[in-house]
Design a protein that fits this description.
mainly beta, seven-stranded mixed beta sheet, four-stranded antiparallel beta sheet, 0% helix
């Protein structure tokens, strides 16, 4: 499985950005997918996750009501729509493929990771 994240960039506070993560492989549609981020000098943290069907989504408190995770199983792609961006959202964002049947927030439960895409929010 290969994951390719894209869509990062430099934006101003209050702007929006949409990240995409394209996955290879035939089993995308049966796995949970997640987005994580890592800011400079900090540990990687959970951002959002979505069940295999897209019917269940989960968010960290810091992004809830601002970010939306979605997926298109026909395109093997998961998205992260980020609105009302803040300077503290600045980080490298990673997509990851999780297990079948669960939607964890723990990064250790994700088996495959993309290379990351940098989001920089200027205040």
């Amino acid at each position: 499985v290969q994951l390719q994240a894209s869509g990062g960039g430099l934006v101003q506070a209050g702007d929006s950005l949409r990240l995409s993560c394209a996955a290879s492989g035939r089993t995308f549609s049966i796995h949970a997918m997640g987005w994580f981020r890592q800011a400079p000098g900090k540990e990687r943290e959970f951002v959002a996750a979505i069940s295999y069907s897209g019917s269940s989504t989960y968010y960290s408190d810091s992004v809830k009501d601002r970010f939306t995770i979605s997926r298109d199983n026909a395109k093997n792609t998961v998205y992260l729509q980020m609105n009302s961006l803040k300077s503290e959202d600045t980080a490298v964002y990673y997509c990851a493929q999780g297990p079948w049947g669960r939607v964890p927030a723990n990064s250790r439960e994700y088996d495959y990771w993309g290379q990351g895409t940098l989001v920089t929010v200027s205040s």
